[in-house]
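Q: Could you write out the predicted structure for this multi-component system? I'm mainly interested in how the pieces pack against one another.
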Amino acid sequence: MRGDLRTYWLLARAGFRRQATYRLALAAGIFTNSVFGVIRASILVSAVAGAGAAVAGYDARSVSSYAWWGQVLIGSVALWGWSEMADRVHSGDIAADFLRPLPLHLTYLAADLGRAALALLARGAPMLAVGALYSGMTFPAAPTEWALGLLSIALAVAAAFLGNYLVNCAAFWLVEIRGLTLAYSIVATLLAGLFVPVHWFPDWLRLVAAATPFPSFIQTPVDILSGFAAGPAAWRAVAVQVGWVLALGVAGASVTAAGRRRLEVQGG
Amino acid sequence: MVDNSTDGLAGAVADAVAGAAAGGAAGGAAGTSGKRTGALAAYRRIVQSRVRAQAGYRVSFATDIAATLLTGLAELTEVYVIFHNTPRLGGLDFDAALLVFALANLTFAAADLLVGHCDRLPTYIKQGRLDVFYLRPLSLLGQLITSEVSLRRLGRISVALVVLVVALARGDVQATATTVGMLSVAVVCGTALHCGLFVAVAGLQFWLVDGREFANAFTYGGAYAAQQSSLVFPDPVRIFFTFVVPAAFTAYLPTLVILGLPGGDFADPALAWWLPVAAAWVWVVALVTWRGGVRHYQGAGG
């Protein structure tokens, strides 16, 4: 057990280091995140101004805070484009992964948590400064709120990763999953509340979102870090995240097992 | 999936280039005009091979189209959600915002279909595909542009077209010389403007191989800014998206003219007719960065 934990730790550290190598890519990420943050914050602040008063509990400052905390998370919470596992199924490299003694989804998850930690420090943290300068931000006041916020980010990263992993598992059955992953990313991004808060959705769409894990990816950590959800509501939201991580983790393990029985790798 | 037909591309290009050479020889007396039609024929054959390659994989093609259709619908939902909560955004009501959305999406998706793959230049460089372009008697930029046609963007284009028709009907727009003229200029020059942005950042990619995400700020960022009323931005940002990266010209300013709306500071409807100049400005920058990038490029080695 202790040996396993050490392996996961090393995988996470490797994920962290791998990401830290590409300095220019990090600079590009900060720049692009800032540009999108400026556009998003402008739209939302303007929407609140157009309504003439607070919209669903958001005034100009809190909606700006929502936009920029979303930009902080976007580098860490992987909503788009992870296809490493599907690529390895197609190339047959997945056979080598199955020879290893640890569950596949957890080893990938460890590496992704390392990647996310670096992204949070290098790409996310600068957004706090840009956001505060551009249109204003709110930060957690107490250390316990920071701690709960960081826990919520870690759970969001894990949930989003396990969601991507499940979609990648479709590669065991389908030859081509680009359309599927793209469709998943689009729906996930919308229902996660990245571009407009889930609290602004019309009732029917909010019900749809609540039935999916997606609000746990972005809306929940943003609510906690921006102070939109506090006290018992924040703890309840984190409990929901824990539930989704466990559910997606169990689903990931069982789908991997089913896919493994199905897998045929040619050559040797 | 298109990448599985690279061999087909190589064959088509070889045929096309051979044809072009023959055309050039036959029209030797006619000089450069013969050469130019030869090059055009070559590009046409390359593009035809790209189209065939995608249509060949039916299921894959259909799911790709469905996915870009979904992209358009998701973005439309975001606009709908905002107007579910506020009657006006940046001085526009929902109908006017739909017209901005339609024009911005139509022109960007059309540009994405034609030249969107240019932002994959770093991949082409790493795979050595760019070096292959150097071996052929065709322009480098011409080959990069014709190396792919992303027909799957048709899904998003069709969403934009439907929204455009709905927005024009709901806005009760009459067909006058002004509205028809503005609409045509907006669609044609707006597409050219977004294409220019893709080429401009492709030129920058020669320096930024690992920093390709910079490109997204100008291409996708420009498209995202183009979908909004300029009045949502504070003055410096509005000036940037009007006179530096002139995204406001592709949808917001033409909408002011078509619907007869007043606009605001640095967002005068009269500016809209300068769209061809804005598109030309983007293309001048694009050709300068492209030339600079090509001169800077030393080859991928190996």
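A: Regarding packing and overall arrangement: DSSP finds 13 helices and no strands in chain B.
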